[in-house]
């Protein structure tokens, strides 16, 4: 039984036979750490996710591997859940040094190509914030992100694009690589059904709700993608949850049910706020409590306020797609309204 007092403690934790959770630091990030999972095989370790390409992260990975009797050069393959820097970029740097094979979902190809343009991290969100009615926040986000381009990050493409649901042999194990778009368009989870393990990346997290559509080239309906992907994983047998952030949990089903309930509640709240007079995603977001502490949008830092507005926009777009709201696009910031009654419906006359 683990004696850890925090999931972020920088040592390897055995979570199953031949499987170890290695938390790597995320400096100046509220998430605090990202989990890399090492799976032992006769040919060398295979890792699910890799961490952020930072000196602190590499030192922590080196130390954890040394404690397990391995070196970084022993890693034969990285199965990366999605193309966010805290999951992907260290895989690229290690491949450059030692040649480890890197696999990534093909839905994230547009993101990789975008990142390789060297554009500012603010560019892809600025326009979306303006369209959400949050022009002031967009300017604040641009100012805060000034000078932070992605050109210094290692965004080389993977060796293999995962396309659709496939099976991957990892030593004696067979992992089902399952496409789960939502958090990003190319997100994957890896299920070891025989051992009852789900490497969930950011698709299912035990204590927080994953951000939706925070990527440079988002899906038109990222929340719809995410909810469909949750239902897909919920249909699998229940397994131990091995998330990218937070401790391991005994039931994937329990957490998925909580996430589905959360988003259904949020959809209802957004619908009610539009019925009450809110018109833009920014106006709706300003009336919603955020985080487990129920904070106001105005009390969030710029980064988290940006995520909150974009997530609200994702909920409103889905409500419009479901015809629960009307979306009017005749201005800079699309507005939302309760649908007018159809006069040709006898019950509405």
């Amino acid at each position: 039984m683990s004696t850890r007092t925090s999931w972020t403690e920088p040592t390897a934790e055995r979570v199953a036979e031949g499987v170890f959770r290695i938390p790597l630091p995320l400096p100046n990030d509220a998430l605090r750490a990202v989990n890399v999972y090492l799976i032992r095989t006769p040919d060398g370790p295979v890792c699910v996710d890799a961490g952020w390409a930072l000196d602190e992260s590499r030192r922590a990975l080196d130390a954890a591997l040394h404690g397990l009797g391995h070196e970084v050069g022993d890693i034969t393959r990285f199965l990366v859940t999605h193309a966010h820097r805290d999951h992907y970029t260290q895989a690229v740097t290690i491949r450059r040094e030692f040649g480890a094979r890197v696999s990534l979902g093909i839905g994230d190809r547009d993101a990789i190509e975008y990142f390789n343009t060297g554009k500012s991290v603010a560019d892809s969100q600025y326009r979306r914030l303006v369209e959400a009615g949050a022009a002031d926040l967009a300017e604040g986000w641009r100012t805060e992100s000034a000078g932070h381009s992605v050109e210094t990050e290692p965004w080389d493409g993977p060796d293999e694009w995962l396309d659709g649901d496939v099976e991957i042999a990892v030593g004696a194990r067979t992992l089902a690589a399952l496409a789960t778009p939502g958090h990003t368009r190319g997100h994957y989870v890896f299920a070891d059904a025989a051992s009852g393990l789900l490497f969930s990346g950011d698709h299912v997290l035990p204590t927080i709700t994953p951000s939706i559509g925070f990527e440079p080239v988002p899906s038109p309906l990222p929340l719809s993608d995410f909810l469909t992907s949750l239902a897909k994983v919920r249909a699998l047998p229940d397994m131990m949850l091995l998330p990218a952030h937070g401790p391991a949990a005994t039931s994937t089903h329990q957490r998925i049910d909580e996430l589905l309930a959360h988003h259904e509640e949020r959809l209802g709240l957004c619908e009610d706020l539009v019925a009450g007079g809110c018109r833009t995603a920014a106006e709706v977001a300003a009336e919603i409590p955020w985080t487990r502490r129920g904070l106001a949008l105005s009390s969030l830092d710029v980064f988290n306020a940006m995520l909150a507005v974009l997530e609200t926009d994702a909920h409103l777009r889905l409500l419009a797609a479901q015809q629960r709201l009307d979306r009017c696009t005749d201005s800079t910031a699309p507005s939302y309204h309760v649908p007018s009654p159809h006069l040709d419906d006898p019950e509405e006359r």
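The mean pLDDT is 92. The radius of gyration is 21 Å.
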